[in-house]
Task: inverse folding
C-alpha cells in the first residue's frame, strides 16, 4: 500500500505508523463525564466498511502526523491533509 | 467413527427458508455452527436458522492457523478456554467425525528476561487453574522440538519456553462441517447466500431480520459475525468496541514430517505447525490498519518469514505456496465480548480477535446457554459488553499470540 505523505509524497506503508480513526473528540467536560462517556472515548471507535478518515504518522520519514481518508475495502486513499492548512 | 479422510456422503440440506424461527444466528462460521449444535443438543432448541451471507465456514473459519490451547493468564480466560479444550478432547467422538485433533503440544518460546518472567508467571497461573503447563529450559525446548535453533549466536536467542502438552491443532474445515452436519440432522436450517441487511425492532426488542431473501421473523437473534460484527450492530444503532484488521497467514508446499509440535514465539513473532497433509502453516502479524479487504501488506509476511528462518534454519529452502488474510475483530482488551446487548433478545458474540478457532466449542456452548436462558453462562458472564464501562477488563494482550 502506497501512502501519500503530504510532505514526502507516496511512500510504502512500512514507513508509517497507524493512528486510527481521526476526529475523536476528548470529552468536553471531563470532570462531569460519567463512566459510559469515558468508555465511549477510550474504547469505541468508528470501524466502517468503506471510507475511513484516519491519522497516520510518517515514522520512518518526516515524522509528522497527517490525516487522510482511506477505503477499508479497496485501500484507495483520497487526498491527505497536512493539518496546517496546506494540502 | 469414520476412518481418517473418509468423508460422510451427506453433510447438510439446502433447506427452504421458513418465515420464522425461534433463534436466528447470523454467521455460519465455526462459532455460529457450534452455537446451533449446542442449542439443539443442550437446550432442545431446534427451530433455528443459521444465516450466512456467503458460503458456510468460508470466513475466518477457513483462514485460521488451527492452533488449540488453553494457557491463558487470567482466571476468566483460563476457565473458558480450558472448557473449550476439554470439549475438543471429546469432540471427534461426539460429532462422529474425525477432526484430526492432534494434541502434539504447543511451545511458547522466550527470548528475553522479560519473556521468561512472563512465561513462568503464565505457567504458574495455568497450574493454579488446573491447566497443564510446563517451563522448559532451552535444552529441553531443543529436546522436545529438535529443529528449533537454540544457538546463542542469533539476534533473539531462545532461552526457554512454556509447553502445554494438551495443546495442538485440528482440521478447521472438518470442525465446521461436523458441527453443521449434526446441527442439520437435528433440524437446524443452514441457509447460505443469505445476507442480513437490517433488523426488525418493536421498541427495544428485536423481532426479526431483513435479508436478501426477505424478512425472517425470530424470537431471538444472535450475532456471530467476527470481523463484520460492527457492520451488523450498526444496523440497530448498537456500537461495539471492535476494530477489524487483516490477519495474515501462509502455507508452504507439502513437506515430509519435519515439525512435531506447534511453536509460537510472541517476541520474534512466529507461530507455526505442520498440518497433517504436510504443509507448514504459519501465522503472521496483524496489519496495523483497519481493513475488510482480506489481504494485508507484504512486509508483514517478510518480517514473519525472517523470524521463522532464524528459529528454523531448516525451512530455508521451503517455498511459500499461498498467503491470505482474514478479518479479525479486535477488542480493546484482547478478550471476547459474549453476552447480552441493550436490545432485548439480541445477543452478541465477537471480539475473539486472533484466537477464535480454539474457542469454537466453548463459544458455541456458552452462547447457546446465553441465548436459551436469556442470561450469560457463568463462563461468559465476565465477557460482557458492560465491562468497558465498569472497567472490569480482562487484559489478555500477553497470552494472545498476535500483538494487538
Result:
Amino acid at each position: 500500500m502506497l501512502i501519500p505523505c503530504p510532505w514526502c509524497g507516496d511512500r510504502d506503508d512500512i514507513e508509517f505508523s497507524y493512528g486510527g480513526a481521526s476526529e475523536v473528540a476528548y470529552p468536553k467536560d471531563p470532570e462531569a463525564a460519567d463512566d459510559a462517556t469515558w468508555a465511549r472515548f477510550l474504547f469505541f471507535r468508528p470501524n466502517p466498511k468503506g471510507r475511513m478518515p484516519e491519522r497516520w504518522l510518517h515514522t520512518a520519514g518526516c515524522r509528522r502526523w497527517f490525516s487522510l481518508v482511506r477505503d477499508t475495502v479497496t485501500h484507495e486513499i483520497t487526498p491527505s491533509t497536512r493539518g496546517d492548512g496546506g494540502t | 467413527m469414520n476412518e481418517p479422510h473418509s468423508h460422510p456422503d451427506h453433510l447438510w440440506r439446502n433447506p427452504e427458508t421458513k418465515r420464522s424461527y425461534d433463534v436466528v444466528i447470523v454467521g455460519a462460521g465455526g462459532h455460529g455452527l457450534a452455537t446451533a449444535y449446542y442449542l439443539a443438543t443442550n437446550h432442545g432448541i431446534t427451530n433455528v436458522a443459521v444465516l450466512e451471507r456467503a458460503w458456510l465456514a468460508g470466513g475466518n473459519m477457513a483462514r485460521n492457523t488451527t492452533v488449540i490451547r488453553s494457557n491463558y493468564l487470567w482466571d476468566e480466560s483460563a476457565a473458558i478456554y480450558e472448557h473449550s479444550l476439554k470439549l475438543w478432547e471429546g469432540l471427534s467422538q461426539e460429532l462422529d467425525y474425525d477432526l484430526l485433533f492432534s494434541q502434539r503440544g504447543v511451545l511458547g518460546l522466550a527470548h528475553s528476561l522479560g519473556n521468561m518472567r512472563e512465561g513462568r508467571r503464565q505457567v504458574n497461573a495455568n497450574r493454579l487453574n488446573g491447566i497443564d503447563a510446563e517451563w522448559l529450559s532451552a535444552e529441553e525446548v531443543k529436546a522436545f522440538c529438535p529443529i528449533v535453533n537454540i544457538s546463542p549466536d542469533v539476534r533473539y536467542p531462545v532461552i526457554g519456553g512454556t509447553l502445554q502438552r494438551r495443546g495442538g491443532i485440528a482440521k478447521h474445515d472438518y470442525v465446521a462441517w461436523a458441527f453443521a452436519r449434526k446441527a442439520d440432522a437435528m433440524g437446524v436450517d443452514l441457509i447460505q447466500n443469505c445476507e442480513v441487511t437490517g433488523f426488525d425492532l418493536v421498541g427495544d426488542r428485536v423481532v426479526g431480520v431483513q435479508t436478501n431473501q426477505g424478512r425472517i421473523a425470530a424470537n431471538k437473534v444472535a450475532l456471530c459475525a467476527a470481523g463484520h460484527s460492527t457492520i451488523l450492530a450498526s444496523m440497530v444503532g448498537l456500537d461495539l468496541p471492535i476494530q477489524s484488521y487483516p490477519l495474515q497467514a501462509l502455507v508452504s508446499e507439502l513437506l515430509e514430517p519435519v515439525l512435531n509440535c506447534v511453536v509460537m514465539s510472541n517476541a520474534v513473532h512466529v507461530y507455526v505447525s505442520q498440518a497433517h497433509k504436510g504443509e507448514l502453516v504459519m501465522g503472521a502479524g496483524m496489519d496495523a490498519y483497519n481493513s475488510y479487504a482480506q489481504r494485508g501488506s507484504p512486509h508483514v509476511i517478510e518480517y514473519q518469514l525472517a523470524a521463522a528462518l532464524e528459529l528454523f534454519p531448516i525451512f530455508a529452502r521451503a517455498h511459500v505456496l499461498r498467503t491470505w488474510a482474514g478479518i479479525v475483530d479486535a477488542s480493546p482488551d484482547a478478550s471476547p465480548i459474549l453476552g447480552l446487548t441493550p436490545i432485548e433478545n439480541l445477543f452478541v458474540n465477537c471480539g475473539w480477535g486472533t484466537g477464535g478457532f480454539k474457542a469454537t466449542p466453548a463459544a458455541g456452548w456458552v452462547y447457546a446457554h446465553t441465548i436459551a436462558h436469556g442470561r450469560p453462562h457463568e463462563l461468559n458472564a465476565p465477557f460482557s459488553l458492560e465491562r468497558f464501562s465498569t472497567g472490569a477488563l480482562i487484559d489478555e494482550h500477553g497470552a494472545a499470540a498476535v500483538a494487538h
